[in-house]
User: Which sequence fits this backbone?
């Protein structure tokens, strides 16, 4: 089936619905909010799809994001009389999505709306709150959507792309003239975002830890560790761009000026997301996806084995970041951000595939791997737990599935500042 996720397992609890790839994970928007797409053109005829199961799958999927700010992109093209849900189903669906789902939904983009959508909106207007209505934006073409989101991150179905081209040709009367893409500008000497770790090291006198990472982590460690929902909230896109500009121009940034501890948290995530190559590297992506197939008691050894293959610089930066996130997790009684919650936020900021974006089914192994790095930070990165030779056994009990019971065995300190980049304890290439 076109567009079906190749990593989707038949053991998925909603395989009958998920196999159609109606829902897709699509990276983050300009505000750092997770994006989920809904593609009507992938909905099969109504007699082939149990719409009640579709509703349950929608809730099952969104349950992974509703604790954080998120965005939905709804591709309307392809909805027709054969696959259209009934009005009663739509009404019950809206009622099912209670405040838990609506509160952190920050934007709903309706792409290629038709007269049917606008009529439907008027029918449901009495049921829809004014506050929710303000989150809905009609988008007539993909270029217009690009003003709000990075369209190259979206898994846009080919049918939608062809339909959009058809609309554009119809409106313009002829295809747009070909334009030459200007050559990319070299980065500024003080550039911090969108450049490689090596570039940052060379421009910062050999310092391994990028200045943005060090300054945001330091600020949050001093003033944000007990902030509830740390890393879950978004920030004003104009504020984020202003701070990026200051960093890139080599100017000082004082986060106290912004009066919001979530701002440096968003900046840290933005820095990771804009690296040309993910911190965990493209090469490690498939290895990380295999973590769920590893016996629980061997997963820490498997993590160390994967990290052994990282470039020395990436390992040092990752160790610093995970040490900081481990410290954040130690204050979870106040900030509500344990290692599992942090993994849900950071997983896709640390690793993504070289082509397209991560699928929904990839979230489980990516988040599990990240959770292990945070929860068992000392065992994964500590000198006393240096990566053992391939095939060596792992001492200790199961890791995943019994995280709470294993906490006492992890030997974790109550507060661990990000360490200096490991040297002698690291592997040798």
Assistant:
């Amino acid at each position: 089936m076109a567009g079906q996720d190749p990593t989707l397992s038949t053991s998925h609890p909603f395989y009958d619905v998920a196999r159609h790839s109606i829902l897709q994970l699509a990276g983050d928007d300009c505000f750092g909010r997770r994006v989920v797409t809904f593609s009507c053109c992938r909905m099969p005829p109504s007699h082939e799809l149990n719409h009640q199961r579709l509703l349950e799958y929608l809730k099952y999927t969104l349950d992974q994001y509703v604790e954080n700010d998120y965005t939905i992109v709804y591709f309307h093209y392809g909805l027709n009389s054969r696959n259209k849900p009934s009005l009663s189903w739509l009404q019950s669906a809206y009622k099912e999505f209670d405040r838990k789902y609506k509160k952190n939904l920050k934007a709903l983009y309706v792409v290629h709306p038709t007269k049917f959508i606008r009529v439907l909106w008027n029918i449901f207007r009495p049921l829809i709150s004014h506050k929710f209505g303000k989150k809905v934006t009609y988008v007539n073409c993909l270029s217009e959507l690009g003003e709000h989101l990075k369209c190259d991150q979206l898994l846009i179905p080919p049918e939608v792309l062809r339909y959009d081209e058809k609309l554009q040709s119809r409106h313009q009367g002829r295809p747009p003239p070909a334009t030459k893409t200007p050559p990319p500008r070299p980065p500024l000497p003080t550039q911090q975002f969108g450049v490689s770790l090596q570039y940052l090291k060379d421009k910062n006198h050999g310092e391994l830890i990028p200045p943005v990472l060090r300054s945001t982590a330091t600020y949050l460690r001093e003033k944000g560790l007990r902030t509830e929902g740390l890393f879950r909230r978004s920030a004003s896109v104009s504020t984020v761009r202003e701070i990026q500009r200051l960093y890139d121009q080599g100017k000082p940034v004082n986060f106290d000026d912004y009066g919001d501890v979530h701002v440096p948290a968003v900046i840290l995530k933005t820095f990771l997301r804009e690296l040309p190559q993910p911190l965990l590297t493209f090469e490690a992506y498939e290895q990380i996806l295999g973590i769920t197939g590893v016996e629980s008691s061997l997963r820490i050894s498997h993590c160390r084995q994967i990290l052994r293959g990282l470039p020395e610089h990436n390992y040092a930066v990752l160790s610093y970041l995970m040490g900081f996130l481990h410290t954040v997790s130690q204050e979870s009684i106040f900030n509500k951000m344990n290692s599992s919650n942090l993994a849900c936020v950071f997983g896709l900021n640390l690793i993504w595939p070289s082509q397209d974006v991560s699928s929904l089914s990839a979230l489980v192994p990516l988040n599990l791997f990240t959770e292990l790095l945070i929860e068992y930070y000392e065992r994964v990165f500590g000198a006393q737990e240096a990566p053992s030779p391939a095939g060596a056994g792992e001492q200790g009990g199961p890791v995943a599935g019994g995280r709470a019971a294993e906490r006492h065995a992890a030997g974790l300190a109550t507060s661990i500042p990000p360490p200096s980049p490991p040297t002698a304890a690291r592997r040798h290439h």
User: Anything to note?
Assistant: Confidence is low (pLDDT under 50) at residues 176-181, 384-429. The CA atoms of residues 71 and 106 lie 6 Å apart. Residues 312-329 form the longest helix (18 residues). The chain is about 40% helix and 5% strand.
